Amino acid sequence: xxxxRWRRIEQLCQAALExxxxxxxxxxEEACAGDEELQREVESLLAQxxxxxxxxxxxxxxxxxxxxxxxxxxxxxDSAQSALVGRQLGSYSIRSLVAKxxxxxxxxxxxxxxxxxxxxxxxxxxxxxxxxxLARFRREARLLASLNHPHIAAIYGMExxxxxxxxxxxxxxxxxLAGAGPLPLTKALTICRQIAEGLEEAHRKNITHRDxxxxxxxxxxxxxxxxxxxxxxKALAWEQSEVDLSELSxxxxxxxxxxxxxxxxxxxxxxxxxxxxxxxQTDIWSFGCVLYELLSGKPxxxxxxxxxxIAAVLEREPxxxxxxxxxxxxxxxxxxxxxxxxxxxxxRDIGDARIEIDEALTPLPLGTASGLTxxxxxxxxxxxxxxxxxxxxxxxxxxxxxxxSVLYFNRAAPPEIRLEVNxxxxxxxxxxxxxxxxxxxxFSASEGKSQLWVRPLDSxxxxxxxxxxxxxxxxxxxxxxxxxxxxxxxxxxxxIVGGAPQVLANAVAGRGGAWNRExxxxxxxxxxxxxxxxxxxxxxxxxxxxxxxGQPSHRFPQFLPDGRHLIYFVQGASTRGVxxxxxxxxxxxxxxxxxxxxxxxxxxxxxxxxAARHCGCRGRGVPFRFPALPAPDDLVCASLRPHETRTFWQxxxxxxTGGLR
Length: 661
Hints:
The protein has 661 residues and is of the alpha+beta class.
């Protein structure tokens, strides 16, 4: 809306107010000369006759730019973006339009008092004039204020200025998940785990989001997930009446009151589509839709038309064949439980989904069911009498005791197994690592150029990893699907099944890294200084350890099984040795004096070399349990051979299955 347009509206409004109500209609028809939009705008102001005077007084002609902004907000004009950008709303300087939605426009603004960027969610004029919609907007503020969780966008306050209502919210950087799929399994599950954590907190406070979808979920550059827009959330006690689906005409977000639909059709549960009472099971359905889409790259139920979409939600199953073939059965079963059309048969709690995802992200030991194959058919159920059952139990106990006795009295030390792996020529023999599942070996080798190679231990054919030129000190992700490494002065990661390497952080001379199940990587960025930690998706690297007196550097970290504690090697004349510390910032402790980094074997032994031990020595090992650390005097080396150059770096690697190199 131009200043001239606003001036004309104001003149006509003032002239109409000077006339009797019965004469205003005829006056406007003549004055507007067939300009129906102009007439509607003036009539909109006249409809608020009790407020128009103050509105016009608050916007004097000499401040036409401010008039334009206020008018755009009040009229809900399409020119609102250009009108508000660069304007001041209270203590907030509006910079740009971020998004438009059914619950208002969202702008990026600068808080001039606190000096921070925020998001302003401005209520449309039609809402501001509607008491019910205004009440919903205020309820959104209260709901968000009660939610304090790292995976839910925070609210800072509520502002009202010149009749304009807005929420002051956390400005979340990054991109939404809209169109993000398909994603690698681990990445999709890691994202959905964080979504589940946020929803779990909301459900704990009896709050339902009601519009979980990829566009309402952002992933920050640091890899943190934020659930956006609880504007459709409601207390569970408020129920809705039935709805006639034939009244709907828009396939996009539909925001309505009782007896109508509230949400986005392609992600709404069947009970939500029907306008029935909803509860946390609705969010669980939508969560399943998001997980399916991130894995398959296609919406579970969205179709070309609203009618087809609603029919798919109510009557059809997702295309299960669209899921990647390697999707574990446990994840497929989780999706089926989330997407049960009968909510009474649906997954009962989003916390259960989080637990299922945790288990799916935790690799199983070699030789156990991996979840990648179909389960065996259910065994035939056989009825037995009480007497037969007791007899069976007694026989089983007797057999077990017999086996234990034989094993005890005939036990022998397990045989030593030696394995030699032939690799292409290498100038970096210390850069290798066994995968946590014990199936693969990654190492640095040169055939024309130095790069990383991966070799399955049941194969003789190693394969090069493209994009890893000059890589050193590789280490594995917990799921054995990705490798971290150092190259070109950076910490990088790459998926072993393909894809380009991703830069995670600066590391001018990396000296080892470790990766836990929570997606945190701890690494030594150089030959001096403490360990740093960074998310496996990248972001800002921060200190994970603190150098103490006489400690020039911390190197070669390894996580302990809990994923929070770790061991690392300290270089220094008087402080040299293997130390244990915690990501939580607790005190570190020297476990033992050593000449190189150590590893913890799956059987619980701390393994490390000492320069005083010569090749072929037989060492002893003591079980290692954190935080009940053994006394340093109880820890000795366990048959490890120092490097011939007597420069003792990390030259040993363990898989969870017990493999040692």
